[in-house]
Write a structure and sequence with these properties.
The chain is mostly beta strands and 198 residues long. It is 0% helix and 45% strand. The chain has no helices and 21 strands. Strands 1, 2, 4, 5, 7, 8, 10, 11, 13 and 15 form a ten-stranded parallel sheet that branches. A seven-stranded parallel sheet has the order 3-6-9-12-14-16-19, with no helix packed on it.
Length: 198
């Protein structure tokens, strides 16, 4: 179990970080995480514990507005969409314990979404996702994340992008604050039921 709590200096990820099964990464308020073409892969538990006054930031290595000039090039570069890849919750991750609360995710989505759910259903709340190259959020048909009080603006797709495929078990779509955005045809298989709430 690991805690990132340093606030005076940003964390700068040189490569993808994987939280293994049975392990937990906790990120405390006011922490800044900078990345370039890298990801955080969650196979265990991720706890992003920002507050309203001190959120956790995930941003580009070129973002000098947060934590200063981390890449050491002065004003020569500015952050752009897709500077980092994603936070991905995988099938083995802990749905009950994984949480992103009061975070700002800026300039992600290289090749994908800023947050991806792969057979995973964690909670993301009170969070801003901006300037992602492709999708703000993406899920497969076996993921049912709890999403509430999100600000999703300025991304390639400002929604929960849902992969196409077949629904093979009774499924309910009930998220109302963020739209579902179907990336391909969804088939409700024989013997299965899709319920869509008001």
């Amino acid at each position: 179990n690991t805690t990132w709590e340093m606030t005076e200096t940003p964390y700068y990820l040189l490569d993808t970080v994987t939280v293994n099964v049975g392990s937990k990464l906790t990120i405390k308020p006011d922490v800044i995480v900078k990345m370039y073409r890298t990801s955080v892969i969650v196979q265990g538990t991720l706890r992003v514990l920002g507050t309203a006054s001190n959120p956790v930031y995930f941003t580009s290595h070129r973002d000098d507005t947060l934590g200063g000039d981390s890449n050491g090039d002065g004003s020569a570069t500015s952050p752009v969409r897709g500077d980092w890849t994603k936070i991905e919750f995988q099938d083995s991750s802990s749905d009950a314990n994984s949480l992103i609360d009061h975070a700002e995710l800026l300039y992600g989505g290289y090749f994908d979404s800023a947050v991806k759910f792969s057979s995973a259903s964690p909670t993301v709340q009170n969070t801003t996702i901006k300037e992602s190259l492709h999708y703000a959020l993406r899920a497969d048909l076996t993921s049912f994340p709890s999403l509430s009080h999100l600000i999703v603006v300025g991304n390639g797709i400002n929604a929960l992008a849902v992969d196409g495929g077949s629904i093979t078990a009774n499924t309910t779509w009930e998220m109302t604050e963020t739209p579902y955005f179907l990336l391909d045809t969804v088939t409700v298989n024989v013997g299965s039921k899709l319920t869509i709430k008001p």
